[in-house]
Each structure stands twice: as C-alpha cells, then as structure tokens.
Specification:
mainly alpha; 5-stranded mixed beta sheet; binds zinc ion
C-alpha cells in the first residue's frame, strides 16, 4: 500500500492545484457523448469536433464554449432527474451558442481553458488511489469564473431564445422535449428548497413560470415526435450518478443516498467505490464482484475491480480485471494507461514491453500526462533516453517548461539523432 500511494502522490503533487478540476472517466465520458451527440449533430457540430469536459464542481450547471466544447458539472450530473432533462440543459446551452450569445467569453478565458484542458491527468479511479480527488483530476484554472461570466451575461430575451432553440434541437434530434419541463420544475424546487444555500444568480438562469409556460407552448406547437429516453440510457445514467457520488461525496452522505437496504446496481456501485475510498478494500471488492456477477459484460465494473486489486497489491488479479475491462470496451485510453501502470508495478517478464505498447496506443487517442509518466516508468533504466523523453513530455503537459527542457536535453544526450524521440525532444527544446 504505502508504495502505491507514494507512487501516485508523486504524480499528483507535481500537478498545479488551483481552480476547479476536470475529471477524466471513460464510463462518464462515453455516456455523456451518447447523450449529447444527437444534439450536436442537430446543431451541425461535426461529430469528431465535439469535446465533452466534466467539471468537478457542485453547481447545477453546464455550458458550451467555442461551439464544440461542452462543459458538464458534476453537480448537474449528480442532481438532475433523468437523461432527457440533462439533454434539455445541454440543448438550451447549445441554443445560446446558435444564437451567438456566448460571444462575450473573452479570448483570454477560452485560451486558458484550452491550455488547462491539456492538464487533465488521471482517471477518476486512479486519482482516488492518491486519496485526494481534488489533487487527482486535471486542473482547470478559473473554471468557476468562466462559467459565471458566461451564465450571468445573458439577458431575459436571450434565455427565451435559447429555450426555443433548445426545444427545437431536442425535437429535431428526436429526443424527449419534455426534458425541458422536468428540468424547469426541478430548478423551481431547488430554488425553493435550497434558497439559503444557492444564490439564484448562480443557478444557471433565473427561473420563471414564464419560461416554463413558454417551453410548454413550444412543445405543443412542435407536437410529440419523441419518446422518453430508452431504459438502458436511464440505467447507465443512474450508474454514472452513483459513481460520481461514490467518488466525490463523504461516505456518510453516500450511505444516506444509498442505504444498505438498497440492493440496486447503482447503490452497490456507489457503496463499493466509497468503501474503496475509505480504505475498506475487501468490502469494496466483494460489492464489485456482486456487480460483475450480475453484469458480466460491463467493462466499468471490471475497471473498478482492477483498481481495487491494484490497491490491495494483487497485481495479477488487477491485470486480469483491467484486461477484461479492455476486452469489453474499445477506445478506452484511460483504461489502457491504468493497465500499463499496474504492469509496471508488477514488473514481470514482458510487462514493461506490454506497458509501453499500451501507453503508445493510449497516447494516440488521447495525450495525457499520466500516460507519459507511466511510459517513462516502463522504459526505465533499460531505455533511459526514451524514458527521459517521456518525462519531458510529461512535464511539458503539466506546464513545467523548465523540467521539460531539462529532461529533453538528457534524452538527446542518450538517444541517436535518427531516433524519433530525439526529434520530439528537440521540439520541446524550441
Ligand atoms: Zn441560458
């Protein structure tokens, strides 16, 4: 245990810690992509340009920036009633974008956001192994400021236009437009119940019966063309919600929301994750195994098992679980990186070579600092030049230019001029 924690901490501590954090998590990202993609195509955002970012912040909020970057707050995911209501929030935000309402987001802010997006680091699972979620995830400087600026700048007219465009987008995407009604009713309840806690200006938009009536009229005008979200989407949504709560809330709050009497998959999931976080790894493992027995084809339950076994020091079982997870999903760079990390910890025959291969594949899909860090570890002393290059890339991604240059120089001294890593190191020295 101490060894693993020390290892994770050394990665975490070198990340700057300020502002809100961004979360990387394959399961959450895939679900959000599935839910948002139909809206994005109805809004003519090209499929491959849609970028979804999960902001670790309790606000009931989401926003769209620069046309293709969608920021979703964990506070929204944890509280919103159902997938259609979630889609309505995103549709409304896209409505602002289509209406040109987001233009006031300053260039400096959006440049800062792009830069900090690159600092995204660890998966939600691995980050918790370090014990401190706020250190673990990538850091987005001034996220709160950006969001507040974009949400407060809208006028009443703009809100109405965004609602209308949002309802229209939902309709064109053949999604359940009633999601709008659900979300307005919920926001209404929340301002009532949380009056003292939530500043109404910080809940995305001023809620009026006027807006609710307006969307009702719109929905009637368009006629019913859509059905409510398919049940598999709803259960995937409930699992993601449980996961976020398990990772981000205190264990007593987790038990309030998911008491032991609740035997649903999402409740077991939330409790298992929460148990893992408080260090009760054997209870966490038994819950996770129950989930796997019930759902042998869910890659994310295996991912969680891999994380737990890793923390228990059972590297063989961890490798098996992560391999199984990868077998059941495709295009999961974060899970590839996690498996590579475990392989470097196990350090058996061929493990480092396999880890290198996994990191390279992961980096092709999604460059991430942790992946470079694991890659450097996998090269190790046997290939010190490439190891130094990977460290240079790691420092470059987390914005430590001096260290990046230092390692790039070391790398060049050890590598041949014809090596591609020599050339890449040269790029970092410019
Ligand atoms: Zn709005």
């Amino acid at each position: 245990m101490p060894r693993i924690l020390a290892l994770i901490f050394s990665v975490l501590l070198s990340l700057p810690s300020f502002g809100a954090t961004l979360i990387n998590d394959t399961e959450t990202e895939k679900l959000l992509y599935e839910l948002i993609e139909p809206l994005a195509s109805a809004a003519d955002i090209p499929k491959n340009r849609l970028q979804i970012h999960i902001v670790n912040d309790d606000d009931f909020n989401a926003f769209v920036s620069g046309g293709e970057d969608v920021y979703v707050y964990t506070g929204l995911l944890r509280q919103i009633k159902n997938p259609s209501a979630f889609q309505a929030v995103i549709a409304h935000e896209m409505g602002h974008m289509l209406g040109g309402h987001t233009a006031q987001l300053s260039d400096r802010m959006s440049a800062e956001m792009k830069r900090t997006m690159l600092i995204q680091a660890l998966g939600i699972g691995l980050m918790v192994a370090g014990g401190n979620p706020t250190l673990g995830a990538g850091v987005m400087a001034g996220a709160g400021g950006v969001a507040q600026q974009s949400m407060l700048a809208f006028t009443r007219d703009e809100e109405r236009i965004a609602d209308n465009m949002g309802v229209d987008l939902m309709h064109r995407a053949k999604l359940d437009t009633n999601g709008f009604i659900t979300v307005f009713e919920q926001m209404h309840e929340m301002t009532g119940a949380f009056e003292t806690k939530i500043n109404p200006n910080r809940i995305n938009h001023p809620l009026t019966t006027e807006r609710l009536n307006n969307v009702r009229t719109q929905i009637e005008r368009l006629g019913k063309k859509s059905d409510s979200a398919p049940s598999n989407e709803t259960s995937a949504f409930e699992l993601v919600r449980a996961k976020l709560i398990g990772y981000l809330d205190t264990s007593s709050h987790v038990l309030n929301l998911y008491p032991y009497s609740d035997k649903s998959d999402s409740a077991i999931y939330a409790r298992a994750i929460s148990n893992m976080r408080i260090g009760d790894l054997t209870t966490a493992r038994s819950g996770t195994k129950t989930l796997i027995n019930r759902n042998p084809n869910n890659p994310y339950f295996y991912e969680l098992l891999g994380d737990i076994e890793y923390q228990l020091g059972n590297y063989d079982d961890s490798v098996y679980a992560y391999e199984k997870s990868l077998e059941l999903t495709n295009d999961a760079p974060q899970i590839e990186t996690a498996l590579a990390l475990v392989l470097t910890a196990r350090n058996g025959v061929g493990d480092n070579a396999h880890a290198i291969e996994l990191c390279k594949r992961s980096l092709l899909h999604e460059p991430a600092p942790l992946t470079y860090w694991v890659l450097a570890r996998a090269y190790g002393d046997t290939d010190a030049g490439r190891s130094d290059w990977a460290m240079a890339e790691y420092y470059n991604m987390i914005g430590k230019d001096k260290d990046a240059k230092k390692y790039a120089k070391h790398a060049q001294r050890k590598l041949k001029k014809s090596d591609s890593e020599y050339i890449k190191s040269g790029e970092l020295l410019k």
